């Protein structure tokens, strides 16, 4: 079951009101979207965007249970980096608020078969919506040591990035690395060597050793940081004056991009990022690294 992250705080800061229109750029499991629809009735509309075709069907199922009319929903099976084009294509205006939840949903992780999880054996793909050609398997099996080390360090902040890259190069000389578990085992081998540990999973506390490398590959495959910059720029034109933009990020690179964009373009409402409380983290451990920032578009001078 998908649990929306920082739901209460996101709604408080976005502040949806009756009959307003909102965009959920990352529809996912529909948790944030359904709450926005509850607050914007009876006539407020929601434009939901997701590369996963199933996201639209999931939202339809939710609104049926809630008794919300389907005429209040528009679903775009697209990349949020195309926000401006999507809004124009659907004549969706005025826009009073935009939400971006940059984490992937539990449904994508557990059921998508994308190779996002190192907990089960799947092909190394990681492409959201499979709209592009580059896969995680191609990166792992064709990029050189320096390129692998760079993305592991830049996108995953992996402290053993060089050793892991070297281990990957060595392993693929014998046979291609095509599955999540094969890659996970290489990462664990590197950690065991670095930490001089014989343990199956060689770390004490914190996140699993494979987490950062899998995150880095996902970001590289989907060009996520460039897409984020593009969608943020589009919100300047899409939002009506006084409209709010809420972004939930899970990676320091994402958060830096959002923080800088807000400072340069909007009125910052959250001086410091809002993070989940202990109770939410206990109920949903994937929320532990989430950061919420909210800003408001000002009237043109």
Protein architecture, described:
The chain is of the alpha/beta class and 301 residues long. The chain folds into two domains: 7-107 and 224-296, Rossmann fold (3-Layer(aba) Sandwich), CATH 3.40.50.150; 133-222, DNA polymerase, domain 1 (Orthogonal Bundle). The chain is 46% helix and 12% strand. It has 13 helices and seven strands. The protein has helices at residues 7-14, 31-39, 54-66, 83-89, 106-111, 136-142, 145-156, 161-174, 180-195, 211-222, 224-238, 252-265, 278-283, and strands spanning 22-24, 46-49, 73-76, 95-101, 239-249, 267-268, 291-296. A seven-stranded mixed sheet has the order 3-2-1-4-5-7-6, with helices on both faces. Helix 8 packs across helix 9. It is elongated and about 60 Å long. The mean pLDDT is 93.
């Amino acid at each position: 079951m998908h649990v929306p992250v920082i739901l209460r705080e996101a709604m408080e800061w976005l502040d949806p009101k009756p009959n307003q229109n909102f965009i959920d750029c990352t529809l996912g499991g529909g948790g944030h979207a359904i709450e926005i629809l509850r607050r914007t009735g009876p006539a407020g509309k929601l434009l939901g965007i997701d590369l996963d075709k199933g996201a639209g069907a999931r939202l339809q199922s939710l609104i049926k249970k809630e008794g919300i009319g389907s005429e209040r929903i528009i679903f775009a099976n697209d990349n949020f980096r195309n926000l401006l084009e999507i809004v124009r294509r659907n004549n969706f205006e005025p826009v009073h608020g935009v939400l971006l939840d940059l984490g992937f949903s539990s449904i994508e992780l557990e059921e998508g078969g994308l190779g996002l999880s190192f907990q089960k054996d799947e092909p190394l793909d990681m492409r959201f919506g499979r709209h592009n050609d580059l896969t995680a398997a191609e990166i792992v099996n064709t990029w050189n040591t320096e390129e692998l080390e760079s993305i592991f360090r830049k996108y995953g902040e992996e402290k053993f990035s060089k050793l892991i890259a070297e281990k990957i190069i060595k392993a693929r000389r014998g046979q291609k690395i095509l599955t999540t578990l094969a890659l996970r085992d290489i990462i664990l081998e590197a950690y065991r060597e670095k930490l001089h540990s014989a343990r199956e999973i060689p770390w004490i506390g914190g996140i699993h050793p494979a987490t950062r490398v899998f995150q880095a590959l996902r970001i590289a495959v989907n060009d996520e940081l460039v897409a984020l910059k593009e969608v943020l720029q589009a919100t300047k034109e899409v939002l009506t004056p006084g409209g709010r933009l809420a972004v939930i990020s899970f990676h320091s690179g994402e958060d830096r991009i959002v923080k800088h964009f807000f400072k340069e373009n909007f009125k910052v409402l959250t001086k410091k990022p809002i993070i989940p409380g202990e109770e939410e983290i206990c109920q949903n451990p994937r929320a532990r690294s989430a950061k919420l920032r909210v800003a408001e578009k000002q009237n043109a001078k």
